[in-house]
Request: fold
Amino acid sequence: QVQLKESGPGLVQPSETLSLTCTVSGFSLTSYGVNWVRQPPGKGLEWMGTIWNDGSTDYNSALKSRLSISRDTSKSQVFLKMNSLQTEDTAIYLCARDRVNYGSYYFDYWGQGVMVTVSS
Amino acid sequence: DIQMTQSPTSLAASVGESVTITCLASEDIYGSLVWYQQKPGKSPQLLIYGATILEDGIPSRFSGSGSDTQYSLKINSLQPEDFASYYCQNGLSTPRTFGAGTKLELK
Reply:
């Protein structure tokens, strides 16, 4: 069955770089895109970016200068790297599979998320 | 970028009641509107895409409507498990903006 699982450090120092991995199973990264979404504690969802099935990427313009999404299709892994972290980047980071039907894109499967705290 | 304005921010209702949540897009998204439910401590769950299409396994008491820039999620005969947060999303283009969310609480 389709599964996504995020992994990475729970604590990052301010100004440092966050590296997260989303490991997927039950589908191929060459057939589906994967998104990163984050949610600060007690707040709403923020779309961060997408890596499409062809390997191209789209980013939230507010994060674009700090954010990079890549993948290793042989390992079924998608990577997020974001630099210059600040306390406001403290959030749960989630990956989600992208689908499209009837002209509507949507996220049909989600990982459980990983909590990242930015603190010294 | 398309902005998504969701209302109300919070809503209190009783089991058995019906509620409606609305989402306004800043421009026409041609029916590409998505709704998610999120329970505390859990990941979001897809409810509806294409404004009206119920995801497999979602109860029929959930329904979506709307077109152009105005969309709604209706929940009939609220069940205890429906008390959660709900988010709309632009499903037309990037950025895939979410609404700010609606917290549905038990009255």
